[in-house]
Amino acid sequence: METDRQKKIFYSELAYILGIVFVAFGVAFMEMVDFGVSMVVAPAYILHLKLVQTWSFFSFGMAEYTLQAVLLVVMMLVLRRFKISYLFSFVTAFIYGIVLDLCMAAVAGIPRESMIARILYYALGMFLCAIGISLFFHTYIAPEVYELFVKEVSAKFNVEIHRFKTGYDICSCLVGVILSFCFFGLWVFKGVKVGTIVCALINGAIIGLCSRFFDRFFEFRDALKLRKYF
User: Fold this and answer.
1) Which of 5, 104, 135, 212 has the fewest CB atoms nearer than 10 Å to its CB?
2) Are 173 and 166 in contact (CB under 8 A)?
3) Phi-psi category of 10—alpha, beta or left, where left has phi over 0 and alpha has psi -120 to 50?
4) CA 145, CA 95: separation in Å to the nearest integer?
């Protein structure tokens, strides 16, 4: 049996940084092969596909933090309260959006002609996202607005968080489908494809495996005394 003394130290601030990088690279790989992005980011991705036709500068990363800003406002209206700490979630979303655009540029030149290569890259993307999300679970720094919304609103209405998260994911998927139909025509699926369904079915299990791995081999500690601000 593992003991705490046998575990390696993993600083929670590093978990936050690596979480952003891993999730960004994961989403970039999934977008690259065009099998469909995850349900959570599908609305932002479709918004990007539409607006980039008019504004060429409007990147996927910009769509992400723009939509999360709107979601943050909606959350505060639902909760009828404002906390300074909520703004840190938007800061996380903003940083993530910048890193996402950099990651997409980094993977853009990777060869992906064969179906086998595309499947492997998509699997890699899901795995990287799962690692990143599990790292976010081990840091005190504010997560993206998506996760904050689920946490705060589920608590407000006394709904079990996992059930609320499932409902939130389904709603995100439906919003993505509706936006795709509105922007690109009926029965045109942009962003929401077979990979989206696969991701929805197995992503939770992969995240669980990654979290158990980290809990078994690492002890997460704070390097900085900043926890009280979050």
Assistant:
1) 5
2) no
3) beta
4) 12
pLDDT score of 136 more than 60: yes
Residue 229 has what DSSP assignment? G
Task: Report H helices in the chain.
Answer: 12-33, 42-51, 60-79, 84-107, 115-136, 145-156, 161-184, 194-217
Name the band, by pLDDT with cuts 50, 70 and 90, for residue 2: very low
191 secondary structure, DSSP code: S
* Mutual angle of helices 194-217 and 12-33, in 10-degree steps: 160
The string over 188-210, giving b where at least 16 C-beta atoms fall within 10 Å of a residue's C-beta and e elsewhere, is eebbbeebbeebbeebbebbeeb
pTM listed for this prediction: 0.88
pLDDT at 54 (0 to 100): 94
Distance CA 64, CA 93 (A): 7
With a CB cutoff of 8 Å and minimum separation 6, the contacts of 142 are: 85, 86, 88, 89, 91, 92, 148, 230
Calculate the CA 6 to chain-centre distance: 31
Tokens of 147: 């996760």
Farthest-apart Cα atoms in the chain, separation: 59
